[in-house]
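May I ask for a sample protein chain and its fold as tokens?
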Amino acid sequence: MTKTENQRISYLPVPTEDTAHEGVKKLWAKAQANMGFVPNVFQAQSLNGEQFLAWWNYFNLLVNKEGFLTNAERELLAVVVSGLNRCNYCAISHGAALRYFSEDEHKADGVAVNWRHANLTGREQALCAYAEKLTLSPAEVVEADLHPLRAAGLSDEQILEAVQVIGMFNMTNRVSSALGFVPNAEYHAQGRK
């Protein structure tokens, strides 16, 4: 579970099986069983076990459970925000998830670099444009910015969920980047033929 100094995944110390919070160890075991590996972010953020589990519960509810947006739309937002923030960990890990949910191995790569050059639907373009503005210019966001989302067919519930996902990834990107989280090698191949 732990990494050697050559495989460092965070600027801060990473708990071991012996030192990790009990709830964190259960999450690690579940991830290992479901994914075949433990995401480095699960290990790196678990230094403060209770805080990590609180973050994970909200993140899991927002990103991994049935919601108002599709899984592919939530991952699209994650990749746009992470690309704009230049968050290596999240762009790579959520790029893998976007490849999986969209069944398009090229979309995630294009979106991470410049969503305007990716093959997106009008609805996806509206989501990306909103994510970009909220990420890069949050003080300039006004009610009129919701009009393109509504015109693209999004309900108020879907808009709220989009805002929450965008907000979550802006926060998570900052934590990951500030502490130098390194993405798992497994992510690079996921969702590719």
Remarks:
- Confidence is low (pLDDT under 50) at residues 1-5.
- The chain has two domains: 19-65, 71-178.
- DSSP finds ten helices and no strands in the chain.
